[in-house]
Write a structure and sequence with these properties.
Number of helices: 28
Helix content: 55-70%
Strand content: under 5%
Structural class: mainly alpha
Distance between the termini: 85 Å
Number of domains: 3
Radius of gyration: 32 Å
Largest sheet: 4 strands, mixed
Shape: globular
Oligomer: single chain
Length: 714
C-alpha cells in the first residue's frame, strides 16, 4: 500500500511538471500535441521523441528546449520577441569540443548531449489581439515573433500545423493570464547556407555587374598609374634642361597636375577613347580627386559644412526609424522623445528641407553665375532652351542613376538573404517590392505611390528632388525669356504649397505626434506639392545672392544683430513649438503649412550671411576644409545608411532595448560604417559614372552654353 502511494505521488508530480512545461514552453507543448494531428510525418515522430526525452530530462532535449523561444517579460510594454537562440540551436549538434581546459570543466560533454537527429531553426509569426499592451501604432506591434529549435525533418507546414493547434487551444499560460488570442500567420524555416542565394537570377546579375566594375577598376587603375609614371618620367627627363626663355621645364609641371582635377575637362582630343574610359574607373585618380579640399573662388564653401552636418542629422533619424521593427520597448523610446531638448531629434525631418533648400540653391547659383536673367535678349532661341533643359535633366539622370541602381540591387539581394536566414524580420520588404516596382524608382516617381509599394522607402527623396530639379530648371530657363512670368510662378507655387499642406493637414485631423507622423507619411510627407516650398526658397536665395546682392551685403551692426536674432528664432520656433505635441488641429494645419518654407528661409539667411561676410566665425566653421571631401560622400551615405541599419539588426539574433547609451553608441557606429561604405561606393561606382557622364555628354553632344549642373548629393 505504501509503495502504491509513493508511486502515485511521484507520478502525479511528474504529470504536474509536464503540465507546467506544456503551459510555459511552446515547443514542448507543440510536441505533446502531435498525436491529435491527422498526418503522421517524420517530423511528428521526432517531436514525440523530443517530448519523451524532455520528460526523462535528457540533456540534448533540454538544450533544444532552452534554445527555443518562450514568453519573456515586458509584453505589456511592447516586447513581442520570443526569439530563442538560433546560434545555440545550430551548435547543439556540434561535436567539436570547445577549446577550453576540459579537465577544469565540472561536467564535460557526453554522447547524451547530442540529439539523435539533425536540427533546424524555425521562425513563427503570430498576430495577437491584446489591448492591454501599450500600443504606439508602430507597423509590427501586433506581431509576435517566436523562434523554435525543431528537428530538421519538420517542414514549414508541419511547424505551422503544430503551432496553430497549440495556440488556438490556448494551452499557453501566457494566453490565459493576459486573455490574448494568437493566430499564426507565417512560418519560416531558416536556411543555414548561401548557395541558394547564389543561384538566384537577381544575384547572378548583381555579381556580374559588380565583377565587371571591379575588373574595370583594376584595369583603369593599372592604366592610369602607368600613364602617371610615364608623364612623370617625361618631367624628370626635362629636369636637366631649360626652355628657350631660361626657365626650368619641370617647374611647368607638378605631380598634382598629372592627375585630372574633378572640374577639369577630360582630354577628348586624345584618340585613345578607351584609355579615357578606363581612367574614369581609376581608383588611384578617384581617391586623389576625393581628397582635394580646394574649392573654386566662385563656390559657396559653407554648403559643404551644411551638407555633412545635415547628413549626420539624417543618419540619426534613419538609425532610429529603421530600427523600430527590432525594438522591444518602443513605449520607452517614445518617452525619450518627450524631453524638451529631444525635440531637435523629434523634428529632425527638417533636415530633409535643409537638403531641398541646398539642392534648389545650388541649381540656381550655378545657373545665375553663367546667366543673368535681366540681360537684354534681342532674340530667343527656344530650340536652344529646349536643348539646355534636356541636357540638364540628362546630366542629372546619368550622374545619379547608376549608383542608385547598384544600391537598389544590393538591397534586394541582401534582404532576400536575410528573409531566409534571420530570426528577425522587417515591415519593409525590398526583396518583394523591388522585384515588382523597380521601374518607378528609375523613373523617379515612386514618391507618388503609397509607402507600402515603395522599393527602398528612403528613396522617395531622390524622386522628389529630381521632380523639383525639372521644375527648377524650367523656371530658370523661363526667367531668361520672361522673368516676371517665372517669378509669378515661383510665388504661386510657394503659396499653393502652403495652402495645400495646411488644407490636407486639417482635412485629415493631423496632429504631429510621433505616431501620427509615421502614419501619415503618404498624405503630407512624400508628395511634391507639400514639399516644394523649401526648394523654391533655395532658388530665390541664390537669385538674391548672385543677381541682387552680387555677393556683397553690407549691413549696419544693429541691422545685422536684428537679422541674426529674428531668423534663428524662426528656426528655433519650428523646432520647439511642438513640445508636448498637444496642439489643436487648427494650429497643426497652420504649422504644417508654413513650417517647412519658413525653415528654408532661416537656412537661406544663414547661407547668404556667411557668403557675404556677415557671420565670420560661423563661416569659418562651416567652411572647414575637412568638410569638403566628407560632403562628397553624402549621396552614397544617404542611399546606404538604412541598408546598414537593417544589415546590423537583421544580422543579430536578438532584439534591441531603447536607451540613451544604446542610441548614442549605435548611432556613432552606424554613422562610421555608413561613411566607410559610402567612400567605397563613391570611389568604385559614383565617381567613375560621373566622369563617364562628362565624357559622353562632352563628346557626343554639341556644346551648349549654360550652367554645368553640380549634382546635389542628398
Amino acid at each position: 500500500m505504501v509503495k502504491c502511494v509513493i508511486f502515485l505521488t511521484l507520478f502525479a508530480g511528474v504529470r504536474c511538471v509536464d503540465e507546467i512545461l506544456r503551459a510555459q514552453q511552446p515547443l514542448y507543448g507543440m510536441a505533446t500535441m502531435v498525436d491529435a494531428l491527422v498526418n503522421a510525418t517524420r517530423c511528428f515522430k521526432d517531436l514525440k521523441q523530443f517530448a519523451a526525452a524532455v520528460e526523462d530530462r535528457e540533456v540534448w532535449a533540454l538544450k533544444i528546449l532552452d534554445a527555443s523561444g518562450r514568453p519573456p517579460s515586458g509584453f505589456l510594454y511592447g516586447n513581442n520577441f520570443w526569439l530563442g537562440s538560433h546560434s545555440q540551436c545550430v551548435d547543439i549538434a556540434n561535436t567539436k569540443p570547445l577549446e577550453v581546459r576540459n579537465d577544469k570543466i565540472p561536467r564535460p560533454r557526453t554522447p547524451h548531449d547530442y540529439p539523435p537527429f539533425p536540427l533546424a531553426f524555425g521562425s513563427v509569426s503570430m498576430v495577437h489581439n491584446s489591448t492591454l499592451q501599450l500600443h504606439t501604432r508602430m507597423p509590427m506591434e501586433w506581431t509576435v515573433h517566436l523562434g523554435l529549435c525543431v528537428p530538421a525533418s519538420c517542414s514549414e507546414e508541419d511547424i505551422f500545423d503544430t503551432s496553430q493547434a497549440y495556440f488556438e487551444g490556448r494551452y499557453l499560460e501566457f494566453q490565459r493570464v493576459y486573455e490574448v488570442n494568437m493566430n499564426v500567420t507565417k512560418v519560416r524555416r531558416l536556411k543555414e547556407d548561401v548557395f541558394w542565394l547564389l543561384r538566384l537570377p537577381k544575384t547572378i546579375v548583381f555579381m556580374a555587374l559588380m565583377g565587371t566594375i571591379m575588373v574595370l577598376t583594376v584595369a583603369g587603375t593599372v592604366y592610369d598609374v602607368r600613364e602617371h609614371n610615364r608623364e612623370k618620367n617625361i618631367v624628370r627627363g626635362h629636369n636637366c634642361g631649360v626652355s628657350e626663355n631660361g626657365k626650368v621645364l619641370s617647374q611647368a609641371f607638378s605631380s598634382a597636375e598629372l592627375v585630372t582635377s574633378s572640374t577639369s575637362t577630360l582630354n577628348l582630343n586624345n584618340q585613345n577613347v578607351w584609355g579615357e574610359i578606363l581612367k574614369c574607373f581609376s581608383y588611384y585618380t578617384n581617391v586623389k580627386r576625393f581628397t582635394k579640399t580646394k574649392v573654386g573662388s566662385d563656390s559657396v564653401p559653407v554648403i559643404h559644412g551644411l551638407r555633412f552636418l545635415g547628413m549626420g542629422w539624417v543618419i540619426l533619424v534613419h538609425t532610429t526609424f529603421y530600427q523600430a521593427d527590432f525594438v522591444a520597448n518602443v513605449p520607452y523610446a517614445f518617452r525619450l522623445t518627450e524631453n524638451f531638448m529631444a525635440q531637435i531629434f523629434s523634428n529632425s525631418t527638417y533636415a530633409v528641407d535643409t537638403y531641398l533648400f541646398l539642392s534648389g540653391f545650388l541649381l540656381a547659383y550655378l545657373f545665375f553665375k553663367k546667366t543673368n536673367p535681366h540681360a537684354t535678349h534681342h532674340h530667343t532661341d527656344y530650340a536652344k532652351k529646349g536643348r539646355q533643359f534636356v541636357m540638364m535633366l540628362s546630366n542629372r539622370f546619368f550622374r545619379l542613376t547608376p549608383t542608385y541602381v547598384l544600391v537598389m540591387m544590393l538591397c534586394d539581394v541582401v534582404h532576400t538573404y536575410y528573409s531566409e536566414t534571420s530570426t528577425l524580420t522587417t515591415s519593409e520588404k525590398p526583396e518583394v517590392l523591388c522585384d515588382r516596382f523597380w521601374w518607378r524608382n528609375l523613373l523617379y516617381i515612386n514618391n507618388l505611390y503609397p509607402r507600402s509599394e515603395m522599393c527602398l522607402s528612403w528613396s522617395w527623396y531622390l524622386s522628389l528632388d529630381t521632380q523639383f530639379f525639372a521644375i527648377g530648371a524650367f523656371l530658370l530657363l523661363l526667367s531668361t525669356v520672361c522673368f516676371k512670368a517665372s517669378a509669378i510662378i515661383v510665388v504661386g507655387l510657394v503659396l499653393t504649397n502652403i495652402v495645400a499642406t495646411a488644407y490636407k493637414s486639417y482635412s485629415i485631423g493631423y496632429i504631429p505626434t510621433m505616431d501620427d507622423q509615421l502614419q501619415q507619411l503618404d498624405a503630407i510627407y512624400d508628395l511634391p506639392w507639400n514639399r516644394i516650398g523649401a526648394y523654391l526658397v533655395g532658388i530665390v536665395g541664390a537669385y538674391l545672392l548672385v543677381i541682387r546682392l552680387d555677393g556683397k551685403f553690407v549691413l549696419r551692426e544693429r541691422t545685422r544683430l536684428l537679422l541674426w536674432t529674428g531668423f534663428p528664432l524662426i528656426n528655433l520656433w519650428i523646432l520647439f513649438t511642438l513640445y508636448t505635441r498637444q496642439v489643436s488641429v487648427e494650429f497643426s494645419a497652420f504649422y504644417m503649412g508654413v513650417s517647412r518654407t519658413l525653415w528654408a528661409v532661416g537656412i537661406a539667411w544663414l547661407v547668404v550671411a556667411c557668403s557675404t561676410r556677415n557671420a565670420r566665425l560661423l563661416e569659418k566653421v562651416l567652411s572647414f576644409k575637412g568638410f569638403v571631401p566628407l560632403s562628397r560622400l553624402t549621396y552614397c551615405s544617404y542611399l546606404l545608411n538604412p541598408l546598414v541599419v537593417n544589415m546590423i539588426s537583421l544580422g543579430s539574433e536578438d532584439r534591441i532595448y531603447a536607451s540613451i547609451p544604446q542610441f548614442a553608441i549605435g548611432s556613432l557606429g552606424i554613422t562610421m560604417i555608413t561613411f566607410m561604405m559610402a567612400f567605397l561606393f563613391s570611389m568604385l561606382f559614383e565617381s567613375p559614372f560621373i566622369l563617364l557622364t562628362k565624357l559622353a555628354l562632352n563628346r557626343f553632344t554639341p556644346k551648349v552654353e549654360g550652367p554645368k549642373e553640380e549634382t546635389q548629393r542628398c
